[in-house]
Prior knowledge:
- By secondary structure, this protein is mainly alpha-helical.
- It has helices at residues 2-13, 28-35, 48-59, 76-79, 84-94, and strands spanning 22-25, 64-67.
Amino acid sequence: MRENIWIKNFLLELMVDVGTPIIKGDNAASLMVANTKSMDTKIKSIDIKYHFIKDHVAVKKDFILQKVHTDDNMADILTKALDRGKNNKFTLMILNMSDEKY
């Protein structure tokens, strides 16, 4: 998150309007906590660095968090052993190519 803030501020100094960046995640509970402004007693024990994220998402609205379905999470190609079909699908997504070409 800090890197995203730095890049956004750097681009703004160069007078490049980036709009509101969208960060995608597949953990519904973490997205819900980050998007909620109120403080619940169940999340008081969460580390301070996560409250930093919550502040930039829910209060300052610097970023938009979106849910990405597990079948469409292309970060899985870097973190999991995938079958050939998913591997090819995510490779094409990363290369910004349609699988209809192949």
